[in-house]
Amino acid sequence: MTRNGTNSWNVSFSHISWLERSLTTHGNIAKMARHDDLVFEIDRCRQVDHLSVICLNEYTMGLTTVHRVIHEFGKPSIIYIGGGWCGYTLQAKEFCLAEGIGLYVTDEMSGGLWADEYWTYCKRDKNGDPAYHLGRSVASDGTR
């Protein structure tokens, strides 16, 4: 594993290392490099293209945070926000779809890396409708 600095996003080394292992063992990744602690540059085999992946750990990824990512790192190909407990707002997902940015939790990442139009990949429910990982808002008293 590569140690290459710290980050202002408070993403732990273990979380970054998990994504790094996931990318290095993914069947559609030919080459990978990491920089700025959170940014993975990958080349995909089947599509013969290059993607930039930002690794975050956001409980609920909102549109403001998506804009912060773009401001700090430029427009990424994919924003990875963490495990199945994480989610994103509908506004963040719709913005990313319109901008051609994949916005994924762990359960969506592998499929997104196989998809030709990686930003549109999503799991589907039993009716074939998109099964997005929409975050739950939390009230000020901590209840949902």
Feature tags:
144 residues, globular, five-stranded mixed β-sheet, alpha/beta, 7 strands, two-stranded parallel sheet
Question: What can be said about this structure in brief?
Answer:
By secondary structure, this protein is α/β, with parallel strands linked by helices. Helices cover 29% and strands 21% of the residues. It contains 4 helices and 7 strands.
Query: Topology as H/E string?
Result: HEEEEHEEHEH
The parts where pLDDT drops under 50 for at least 5 residues are 138-144
Number of strands: 7
**How many whole angstroms does the radius of gyration measure?**
15 Å
Class of secondary structure makeup: alpha/beta
As laid out across the biggest beta sheet, the strand order is 1-2-3-5-7
Report the β-strand fraction as a percent range: 15-25%
CA distance, first residue to last residue? 37 Å
- Portion of residues within helices: 25-40%
Give a short account of the largest sheet.
Answer: 5 strands, mixed
- From the spread of the alpha carbons, the general shape counts as globular
By DSSP (H or I, 4+ residues per run), the number of helices equals 4
Average of pLDDT: 89
Give an overview of the whole structure:
This protein is about 30% helix and about 20% strand. The protein has about 140 residues and is α/β, with parallel strands linked by helices. It has a 5-stranded mixed beta sheet, with helices on both faces.
